[in-house]
């Protein structure tokens, strides 16, 4: 099939304007409300949806009731439509900004990953090209999806391994877990401990179990080591993980900071023998291409720092992490 014929076929399949109208209709309580939001008549919106259904050859809404209900095919289209439309917007903005190469590439990171750790990931890229413009800011995990879809984020970094249905992901690297305690803590006399030595000490976490992948991961490591952890959810959110123990001096906290003194010497980070490894996962918008993102991924492949015998997040053991993390480009993402 020629490029012209293929392009004509794609246009007939999905018209971006009708696709946007479909998304608005799917999210609105009524068709009338959707039409009002789009500043068109209800009849025009109904005609656009019917044309989209004819283009795709499936019913997108069940019209058995007065309110529109998505069919299974409609749910399938809705799930993929938002990232696809966001990708179109990103492409349009990138084209408009082509003459402005200094437009910042925005990276959001969850509180479980410090800004210093983010800089270690981007450092090879900014050293190789000091003109590249990158903005790093902290975001809460629950806002990552919206930030990527609305264009306020170009890339997000978090602790996680699950794959959201409407976003692209890749595990960039793994980091060894360590323990943070205040200087007066009983464990502060040690430079290295076995993970079982924290069994008698309560642990500060940032979200309750079953509400956070990272908390569940930490709990699973404790259980694999033979003890049930005593947990306290930190009421202070968004601060560096090692600061959690300052207000709770009899507690400890899992961190990924370098071993030694931190926070003006008030906190000590202790190494764990055969440490469990935790992931840094990148999340971005599918159907999008970014030169900066590709550079970051390529440079991050060799940035993993692990020790022999470290335990992976799935409980397995690996002597080292090969630097062959798959990077999904626009053509790879489904």
Strand ordering within the main sheet: 4-3-5-14-6
Measured as a percent range, the helix fraction is 25-40%
Distance between the termini: 22 Å
Assembly type of the chains comes to single chain
Structural class: alpha/beta
**Could you spell the SSE succession in H and E letters?**
HHHHEEHEHEHEEEEEHEEEEEH
Weakly predicted, low-confidence segments: 304-334
Note the overall shape. elongated
Mean pLDDT: 82
Keywords:
single chain, 334 residues, alpha/beta, five-stranded mixed beta sheet, 14 strands, elongated
Explain what this protein looks like in three dimensions.
With 334 residues, this protein is an alpha/beta fold. Helix content is 34%, strand content 18%. It has 9 helices and 14 strands. The protein has helices at residues 3-13, 16-27, 31-38, 42-56, 72-96, 115-128, 144-150, 213-224, 291-300; strands at 61-62, 69-70, 105-109, 134-138, 155-158, 168-176, 178-182, 192-193, 203-205, 231-233, 253-255, 260-262, 267-272, 277-284. The strands form 4 sheets. Strands 4-3-5-14-6 form a 5-stranded mixed beta sheet, covered by helices on one side. Strand 12 and strand 13 form a beta hairpin. Helix 2 (16-27) packs across helix 4 and helix 6 crosses helix 9 (291-300). The radius of gyration is 24 Å and the shape is elongated. 31% of the residues are buried. Mean pLDDT is 82; it is low at 304-334. This is LysR family transcriptional regulator. It holds the Pfam family LysR_substrate. InterPro entries: LysR_HTH_N (IPR000847), LysR_subst-bd (IPR005119), WH-like_DNA-bd_sf (IPR036388), WH_DNA-bd_sf (IPR036390). GO terms for molecular function: DNA binding; DNA-binding transcription factor activity. Residues 14-71 form the HTH lysR-type domain.
